[in-house]
Amino acid sequence: MSLNGFAPILPEFLGGSADLTPSNNTFNECSVSINDQHGSTDMNFEGNYISYGVREFGMSAIMNGLTLHGGLLPYGATFLMFSEYARNALRMAALMKIQSIFVYTHDSIGLGEDGPTHQAIEQIPTLRMIPNMSVWRTCDAVETAVSWRAAIEKKNGPSCLIYSRQNLAHQTRSDEQIANIAKGGYILKDSDGTPEVIVIATGSEVDLAMQAAAASEKNVRVVSMPSTDAFDAQDAAYKESVLPAAVTARVAVEAAIPDGWYKYVGLNGKVIGMTTFELKQGSIHITKKSVQKSKRI
To answer: How far, in whole angstroms, is CA 271 from its chain's centroid?
Structure first.
């Protein structure tokens, strides 16, 4: 857990969750609850973790206030779907260029008993559209650690750290690949020669891209792009090294609205994403029973 690594060296961390601490996993080994856990009105103000209750906007607005106060680095968590309730506070953090860290879990259609109302479709793309907001959607523990470091080091604006509920496969990387994660997009798997196809993916879809590349008879390059804004900030030479203009056969895969990916795949590329709230048989069909049978969708 990334927080267990960072928390001991960051006493300014002030964590919290909007009534979803066990699901968000934001209570780390250094966390001490400010709220009394036994119904008393007494508060432990030597603590460093706030149970905000079902108050996504309130949590996010309080985080902004704490950041502006100074001396604290607040992070607060809820399900990605509930970022909708907090939009005004997220936008204000971006407008004011302050370092609030918004943590969102349960990031896609790979959810169980709560159904379509909790299955985020348009949230990731619209968060990416907020100016000065850094958005990270990671595929495993290594990318997750890098996303936390990026949010901690970004002093001039907020970050959204978006994580899956599924168990995700660890991806093997070289030291160079690990260093390139912070650039927002990097080559996770390369072809033997010039790639015939480039597959771009994020989050839980990265492993699907890796499996597809392994099964393909073509020379396939897989690009993991956990942060489009971090990738866009790189120089032209680096972006060309990852997404060479000469390779126009490109596919982007993300379990969300596909529109934002066309600037990376071009007019000749394809995007596999979600264009409807319905999960229709023949594309992706998820039932409570199937989710219970498998931790992976």
So the answer is: 19
Segment 16-46, tens digit of pLDDT: 999 888 888 888 888 888 876 555 567 777 8
Q: Which residues contact 175 (CB under 8 A, 6 or more apart)?
A: none
Residues with a known catalytic role: 56
Taking the whole predicted model, whether its pTM rises above 0.85 is answered as yes
